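Narrative progress, year one. The postdoctoral researcher (J.K.) led the effort to move from monomer predictions toward full complexes, under supervision of the PI. The following entry was the first complex the group processed end to end, covering 602 residues in total.
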Amino acid sequence: MYSIEANQLTKQFGDFTAVDHICFEVREGEIFGFLGANGAGKTTAIKMMSGLLLPTSGTAMIAGYDIRTQSKLIKRNIGYMSQKFSLYGDLTVFENMQLFGTIYKIPRKELKERIMDSLRELDMEKQANTLVDSIPLGWKQKLAFATAILHRPKIVFLDEPTSGVDPIVRREFWKLIYLAASKGVTILVTTHYMDEAEYCNRISIMAEGQIKLIGTPGELKQQMGVDTINDVFVKFVKR
Amino acid sequence: MILKKEFIHIIRDTITLSLVLAMPIALVLLFGFTISTDIRNAKISVLDQSMDTQSKALVDRLSASGYFQVVSYPNNELEIDNDFKNKDIKLALIIPPNFEESLSKESTVTLQVINDVSDLNVASILNNYVRAVVQGYASDYNDQITKSTSSFDITVKMLYNPESNSVYMFVPGIITLIMVLVTALLSSITLAREKETGTMRMLLITPVKKLYIIIGKVIPYMIISFISTIAILVISVTVFKMPINGSLLMLLFLCIIFMLTAASFGMLISSISRTQVDAMMITMMGLFLPTVLLSGFLFPLNSMPMVFQVLANIFPAKWFIMAIKDVMIKGSGFFDIWLYLAILFGMAVVFIIFSISRLDKRN
């Protein structure tokens, strides 16, 4: 059973084709990396898959729902975290999680338990009543991730979740991703960091709106005859 | 929930909050006291060429009105000229010889008024005051001698604002400005801020209805603006003795409808702007300036070129000012102003629908 099935997914803005007939599948519980230079079409693809943007042609099934007709059901079943830190700075950690939890209609009592559980996982219980603006960026990113999976979505879209974060926090962040994936959450992540790409189960490399390469990190390295994903990317760009 | 969050935003942002609450009060006081076009105790000279009982009665009446202070009694017109130069008088009144006699015999008596028109506004206001006083005098005189003469047949009829009290004109205008400023500007900025920080996309990706996002943002600012409005009304009534001739409930209802219109206009602006600065500029240029210029608040609409008169119709402020003046000054009720209310409400609905449809396009 696939969590994500994109079929000839296309988005045009005027004459410009941002996403050009992409096809791929992601299995349940898989960590799928979305690589590519800026402007390659990653963000547009994610927007379509999360129900923010209607495709020009083609379609995709997200958690078994059609993005064209069932965007409401999709919204209930996905989580999202963007490159820009996107919680409210003038709300406390707890208030932020409460806000998003309430929007997803998690019952009040259960919500409180879930928030405390996830804060415990993050080791941030003491910060529950701190304003989000006053905690370090790395913690904010972890918090944003925890908030994005609070309603237990089937799929989480992470749009460059670790940009601007130091390597130690990045590693911790990936631990959280693995933890979520081990619970069966499908994760689609875009990143600039090639070392992070190695952590993914499978990756795809996009350019000019098309998926040029797709496979496990090992397969891609073998295919291009290099040792690291970074080299794969460099060689691919030169080609 | 979004409502609650929005309240927290506002309350935590103490600078904005105190600004929003204090500004209206400061503005009303500022406008009320400084831009007031009322003139009290203007210095005048009276050249009384008859010096009889009636002419003295007229002069007494002028001084008693409170508008004028007679500072000198020149003997000829040359001296009047000197008074203008040296005594800083604003106006001189010349009463013709044999005033009393002509009053009883002739049908028309001519009084001459000489004005310092270096300040056109002051001059025309003082002229009106003189007319009002003289007319009052004339009607009393006619009553006294119980026969109808047509002397001083100056028919200046000042309805609703017999003292030409400018506060009456300014208070509705200020209420409008405040409401536009607080509701439209702040609500447009708040939505644009969410776009800037990326939280808007977070919200849009959740299953929450777009209408709720908009309503959740509109209501808190309406409430704040409502508090400001009440503060303005209290000041206008207590400090400036502004009457509220219509029903207070009607007035508040009207204000709520206008706030809804203003807030939804704010939403509309923020739905087409990408950043807070954009939103602010568009609100200032696209809403605030037209409100000041085209609402009939400072400049009378019917003396404008046709194009602007037509243009004024698309800004909510014009309709609101007409309605609020009717309610406050004329004491109109619901059936007199329902059309204005309907127009304002209709605008709000159109703005909200449009901003909802624009909401996801930019994200």
